[in-house]
From TrEMBL, chain A:
Cross-referenced Pfam families: TctC
Organism name: Roseovarius litoreus
Key words of the record: Receptor, Signal
Family note: Belongs to the UPF0065 (bug) family.
Protein's recorded name: Tripartite-type tricarboxylate transporter, receptor component TctC
Cleaved signal peptide residues: 1-26
Coiled coil: none
Keyword Transmembrane helix set for record: no
Automatic annotation (TrEMBL), chain B:
Organism: Roseovarius litoreus
Name this polypeptide is given: Putative tricarboxylic transport membrane protein
Top-rank taxon, per record: Bacteria
InterPro entries: DUF112_TM (IPR002823)
Keywords from the UniProt entry: Membrane, Transmembrane, Transmembrane helix
Ranges where the DUF112 domain occurs: 18-434
Ranges in a coiled coil: none
Listed transmembrane segments: 12-38, 58-80, 111-139, 193-214, 254-276, 312-338, 350-374, 410-439, 459-481
Length: 327, 501
């Protein structure tokens, strides 16, 4: 086929119309239902947060926002589907420390690229992990525990291989050289009873699931894993502030943030980012975070990108040191 | 205390609460009856509606959905051999044969009575013995759990059908299938062949639907049975004698459910099978089980509903969610600013009483809405097979897809459907396969966890609970195998005698 000048001009015209068309669409955004993909089953921490965010976004954007659960393969299945979704702003993804921090370091045959496949929108919330022992444990401080662990060997429970609970423990172990055996359970719901019963010696649990037991006195908090103390647990030191050189700068936490598939229009990202600022500032959301002992984050999409990059790097170090991989 | 109960009554008796519990139960029954949509999913879907309700109303809505869902699963299990929820798989064993005999009404009603009684007993245990038996949740560490699973595996003997050998093969195939996916301790991939979809293991619901519902559909088309058989409308009811005969199994099943429900992670499916196994073991004529014995339906439904109230025991008494449903309910409590656990009994005792009152009422609501559901759903049994089975097939596909929105799962369902069909043709029972598949990971996890906690093998004998389960495991194996061998010998003698004459 011979390509005439008119064809080219026509094609260019059409292309510019299309380009204009998309930005016009971005200005109208949203015009239909938005779906947030959650890579876990309904009822988990990520799911409940996503539903809270969906509820808030629906009000701010005046458009229905629904949550779709795509569990499986340690959250990697749903994440892969989100990575491959159409980047039109109508499919979003509830990312967390696992999908955009730990999993890329742990799984060798991951089907998505946490950086290239996603356009970060906003870091929403973070949860400290807390080092807890049961009330009958002889250890009053993290230092005492560490000494004992170096001498005789201890066990630490987790909600499963590759969870932030597991890797916080691995981080502690690889930094201090403590002799600790990992005992995985399927979810915190099974791991916490084992800690309460004394079947495992310690756990670096997510604060929300440990909090009720700390309040009731069944568990004793030795330290939090974040760089700053948690407002919920004023009296509990951070691992960083203990005078243990190996633990200087210890930082491990769970976090959640909203992302879009890469290629999503910048104007759409900006709209969502502004809407999310309103959502996380709302009274409902502040209450929600407060009851969970979570910290509300925020910031620009660029800051979230940089945060993800730093998370990927730091978890990779832990995973490499601990030798946790899934081939 | 009485003052608190009075305030609890005051808190409970509002129109909103009564509506919430009724709506919850009805919604649960319908969702539970749809294969692929489980009680768990129903609860999770209802959660956002509780955001703006008051605490008691919201929690009661969720509890209602859950209880309705557990019963709802039995409806399709009985009518079309497609368990609406995993826990109803055991109900298929005797429920479906009854439906085939044109006694679906009897099976459904028995399932409902057993469910309501078990639910009621389970609620009573929650209210009166919560603090007493909550300790069980902590007493079961990995070694105790390991022996509990060993004991549960002996039930395979009771559900093997005509041949113990084939039953064992079926159970072992189930165990083997359960090893597919990432291993618990090191995250090693097993039998995944690099396939991403298999990393999380074979999905439970597609396997269940494939194994039970699909073989009936395939069989219908393979055998080309005369299509135009319209059954006379089914008017069968549970007789008083049948009810009395099953009462002991119902009560025993309820308490098996209560104990299993109290232990985090064990689940309603295992409770149903254990209860069924016990009912068959103690029955006067065990050979009628699996061929449409209404007591079998009663036992399995009592087992799975007995779990429903009891799962709230560790949640309310200790603040530990034992399964996904209670985790969602925990989420709902926390959204309201309430934290279940010992502190709640001090700080918010009136809310607890109000919830208890509502939960007791839910058993009665379940009876009413169940009766209503049966009246309409039972008509499914009257639909001619050539019209019904394509619809069943559609539900098989829909149910498998609905779980994770994955076409891969539909493939899984079809593959296990073919396997189920072959097993049906060679008279190999499918129930042991399911038992093996469910219990396999629990068996392996707890064995390995025990060894991680202590390298010493003595950990398996550390407590009285271990010894109790070791004893009943050995007893159950011995009695079970001896009886099966006798039955086989008797059958062989009978064949020989008839051949000689």
């Amino acid at each position: 086929m011979k390509i005439s000048r008119r064809t080219i001009v026509g094609a260019l015209g059409a292309a510019s119309m299309l380009a204009f068309g998309t930005s016009a669409m971005a200005q109208d955004y949203p015009t239909k239902r938005i779906t947030i993909i959650v890579p876990y089953s309904a009822g988990g921490a990520t799911d409940i947060l996503a539903r809270q965010v969906a509820d808030g976004l629906s009000k701010v954007l005046d458009e229905t926002v629904t949550v779709e659960n795509r569990p499986g393969a340690g959250a990697t299945l749903g994440t892969t589907q989100a990575a491959n979704a159409r980047p039109d702003g109508y499919t979003l993804f509830m990312g967390q420390v696992s999908s955009h921090g730990i999993a890329p370091a742990v799984y060798k045959n991951l089907q998505y690229d946490p950086v290239a496949d996603f356009a970060p929108i906003k870091l929403l919330m973070s949860i400290p992990n807390v080092m807890v022992v049961n009330k009958d444990s002889p250890f009053q401080t993290a230092g005492e525990f560490l000494e004992a662990a170096k001498a005789e060997g201890k066990t630490f429970g987790s909600s499963g291989v590759g969870s932030s609970i597991h890797l916080s423990g691995e981080m502690f172990k690889s930094r201090t050289g403590a002799n600790m055996t990992h005992v995985p359970f399927r979810g915190s719901g099974e791991a916490v009873p084992a800690l309460l019963a004394g079947d495992v010696d310690v756990m670096f649990d997510n604060l929300p699931s440990a909090m009720p037991h700390i309040e009731s006195g069944a568990l004793r908090a030795l330290a939090v894993t974040t760089p700053e103390r948690s407002p919920k647990l004023d009296g509990v030191p951070t691992l960083d502030e203990l005078d243990i050189p190996e633990l200087d700068g210890f930082a491990a936490r769970s976090w959640f943030g909203l992302l879009a598939p890469s290629g999503t229009d910048a104007a759409v990202i900006a709209t969502l980012s502004e809407a999310l600022d309103q959502v996380i500032a709302s009274e409902a959301f502040v209450n929600f975070a407060d009851t969970r002992g979570a910290d509300i984050e925020g910031g620009s999409p660029e800051e979230f990108s940089a945060f993800i990059a730093s998370e990927l790097a730091s978890w990779k170090t832990v995973v490499d040191d601990a030798g946790v991989t899934v081939e | 205390m009485f003052e608190n109960i009075a305030t609890g009554f005051e808190l409970f008796f509002t129109l909103g609460n009564i509506l919430a519990i009724t709506a919850g139960v009805c919604l649960g029954v319908v969702v539970g009856a749809i294969p692929g949509l489980t009680a768990t999913m129903a609860v999770a879907l209802a959660l956002p509606f509780t955001f703006n309700l008051d605490p008691v109303t919201g929690i009661l809505l969720l509890v209602g959905v859950y209880k309705g869902g557990v019963f709802g699963g039995s409806i399709t299990a009985i009518l079309i051999r497609a368990p609406g929820t995993p826990a109803a798989a055991c109900t298929v064993l005797d429920g479906y044969p009854l439906a085939q005999k044109g006694q679906a009404g009897k099976a459904l009603n028995m399932a409902l009575y057993a469910s309501c009684i078990a639910d009621f007993l389970s609620n009573l245990s929650l209210i009166f013995f919560a603090s007493l038996i909550a300790g069980l949740a902590l007493a079961f560490g990995p070694p105790e759990y390991f022996w509990l699973i060993c004991f549960s595996l002996t039930v395979v003997i009771s559900i093997s059908g005509s041949s113990l050998t084939k039953g064992l093969i079926s159970g072992l195939l189930g165990l083997l299938t359960s090893t597919i996916g990432l291993d618990l301790v090191y995250g090693t991939q097993r039998f995944t062949y690099g396939n991403f979809n298999l990393m999380g293991g074979v999905s439970y619901i597609p396997l269940l639907i494939g194994l039970f519902a699909l073989p009936e559909v395939i069989d219908f088309y393979v055998r080309k049975v005369a299509p135009f058989t319209v059954k006379a409308a089914d008017r069968s009811r549970v007789t008083l004698a049948e009810f009395k005969g099953s009462l002991l199994s119902i009560i025993r099943g309820s308490f098996i459910g209560v104990i299993i429900g109290t232990i985090p992670g064990a689940g309603a499916t295992a409770a149903a099978f254990l209860s069924y196994g016990e009912a068959r073991r103690t029955a006067k004529s065990p050979e009628t089980f699996g061929k449409g014995n209404v007591e079998g339906v009663a036992a399995s439904e009592a087992g799975n509903n007995g779990v429903a109230g009891a799962t709230l025991i560790p949640l309310l008494a200790l603040g530990i969610p034992g399964d996904v449903v209670t985790a969602v309910i925990l989420g709902a409590f926390m959204l309201q600013g309430l934290t279940p656990g010992p502190l709640m009994f001090q700080d918010n005792i009136t809310i607890i009483y109000a919830i208890f009152i509502g939960i007791m009422l839910s058993s009665i609501v379940l009876l009413g809405s169940g009766k209503l559901a049966i009246r309409y759903f039972a008509r499914i049994a009257d639909i001619p097979r050539h019209i019904l089975l394509p619809i069943v097939l559609m539900f098989c596909v829909f149910g498998s897809y609905a779980v994770q929105s994955q076409m891969f799962d539909v493939g899984v369902m079809l593959a296990f459907g073919v396997l189920g069909f072959i097993m049906m043709k060679i008279n190999m029972a499918a129930a042991p396969f399911l038992m093996g598949f469910i219990l396999g990971p629990l068996f392996e996890d707890n064995l390995r966890r025990s060894f991680l906690i202590s390298e010493d093998i003595l950990i398996f004998f550390r407590s009285p609970i271990c010894w109790i389960f070791i004893t009943i495991t050995v007893f159950s194996l011995f009695v079970g195998i001896r009886r099966e061998l006798r039955a086989t010998r008797a059958k062989r003698d009978a064949i020989r005698a008839s051949g000689a004459s």
